Amino acid sequence: MKRKMSIAKRHNLTGWTFIVPAALLIVAMSFVPMVQAMILSFQSGKGTALSFVGLSNYVRMFKDGVFIQSIKNTFFYLILQVPIMLVTALILASVLNKKDLKFKGFFRTAIFLPCATSLVSYAIIFRSLFAVDGFVNTVLIKLGILNTGYNFLGNPTSAKVIIIIALLWRWTGYNMVFYLSGLQNIEYSVYEAAMIDGATAFQRFWSITIPLLKPMILLTAIMSTNGTLQLFDESMNLTSGGPANATITMSHYIYNVSFKYVPNFGYAAAMSFLILVLVALLALVQMKVGDKRD
Amino acid sequence: MKKRIISGLLVASMAFALLTGCGNKSEKESTESSGDENTLTVWCWDPAFNINAIQEAEKIYQKDNPEFQLEVVETPWEDLQTKLTTAASSNQIDTLPDIVLMQDDAFQKNVISYSDAFVDLTDTAIDFSQFAEGKVSASIVDGANYGVPFDNGAVIACYREDILEQAGFTTAEFEDITWDQYIQQGKVVLEKTGKPLLSCLAGETDVLAMMLRSAGGGFFDEEGNALIADNEILKEVVETYIELVKSGVLIEVNDWDQYIGSLNNETVAGTINGCWIMASIQTAENQAGKWKITNMPKLDGTSSATNYANQGGSSWAVTKGSKNPELAADFLGSTFGGSVELYDNILSTGAIATYQPAADSEKYAQTNDFFGGEEVYTKIVEYASEVPDTINGVYFYEARDAVGTAITNIIAGADISTELKTAQETVEFNMQ
């Protein structure tokens, strides 16, 4: 006798067959290591000589001056850079979305291009641009603004500002592309109707573009927050965390603890989990604030 | 239906193959690296320098052991450290090569963190007494030798003779001097030629570490405790360093390229570093004959002060991942620890021996036209033998960063003893 499955059951089975391989891979490659890292974060010791220490790694990080400094630095980048970047990207996107603009394709590509460069090479280029005898100083001296070269990367504040400038240069175009694709989905007739009603350009931007782009803005905000909290390359390659840890990020410090100093992987794993918690919390806040769909 | 089941099975088997494939790969790699009985694998990083040296050593060893083969894998130091850490902390020691070259500064840290990863070479045929004492101490852990010394890191002071002349000095007047005299003469050079005497990396403590070591000091005491806040030698070193920066005799740059640039572009009139810096200086061919070498200045207020120190340099270590550690030890012992011929062959690349018998070789008496036609190699070997024994410590990189931070803050106007106290606390915190 043939057993017949119901249609619903068969559909379910097909669905599961498609999902299971990918799900298994994700579990094995991503979730298992996560759990292992979680277990690791409750251990401490040099290199391989690890022993369970309970929550002491989590207590330890709040007494660690350098780690606290790195949290402050990271949030400094986050608070200044993400809003500036997203607003700039939004403005650029709506300018480049104008129907009658010429060479649109060229401008879009040019602004998007920075994020296709390698993280390390752009950091090194920024470092040489802002060197004491670098391009920026040479221009400033030639223009008579400065007498001698200013050590941009040697001063805590200016070094932080340069990291922010570098981040803006690289990531604004990336976010702009998201907004552009969002803008394509807004019916032009909505703008026409607003224009007939006498809305100014700013009113159209504020009352039509922004509300309709909200899901996209939310997405980019979460992605940028996540990216900034995990910032590593710029701190590592542009400033080496200096001067005096003024620009070191959390990920950079975690790298130092794991690979530069006497390795303490338990403590490094615990700090990584703090980043995870921070990312999750901030994403939650942003979703609560930004998403009013239900 | 049948088709669906088959395709389902296919997908499942592919996933299975993928998953198990990952597991197999690491096993395969480990067998590959060990190879057959007479082949050794080596990780080191500089084709013009240490890779060339180990290949010369291979040729010499092959004369007596024709079967012997070496497989050299070019691995930059940062990558080597990361790979080493990863392999050792995941208990995959058999993925390591037979021999690794290790920076002396990182030697203690790696051997103590991963005591199961390295072979104790004390009881092998290698005669460690033939090497300079200050050099061997870098690779001794708990009285046991874990490394065969390779290149010399004896500190030399290089000066541009032509620039000094414009200020009315000669390099000879910088020999056996103190830092006070150095600063006084440096001010004159700066005034007359506009060029500082020295450049170094901001926030890095290379110059400080050289000053410290020249007086037999370090960031740690003999028991391995951090010795920063109450370190009288360090205090004098920091004061001298601040004086150097304030007087303009020392100029701080932000990265290594700028440092090398300051030498090659005539921004500065000299430098002080491990003797391996000669290779970088010689890349500016138009400056041939204008450089001269002498010893470094010494501290004024410390009784143990000398004009000699060690900076950089590396040693060969045998890993427990080796299938044939006896062969590896014998290879290193009869080449780097026993062959004058090897050191003669690699001298032209700037690899100066810490193996004392090599220094008596005729080759070392040769003159170098780039450095004023003097017998620089004899000089450097002489300096190396004078280097005081120092304690590097397991937590050297932690101390280096903490003191580097303190220095940056002190230059910006912070109080010396408060900053050193903070550095001490930071290092102690890291050591917990």
TrEMBL record, chain B:
Which protein are we looking at? Extracellular solute-binding protein
Q: Which region is the signal sequence?
A: 1-17
Organism placement in taxonomy: Bacteria, Bacillati, Bacillota, Clostridia, Lachnospirales
List the SUPFAM superfamilies: Periplasmic binding protein-like II
Short name of any one Pfam family annotated for the protein: SBP_bac_8
**Key words, A-Z:** Signal
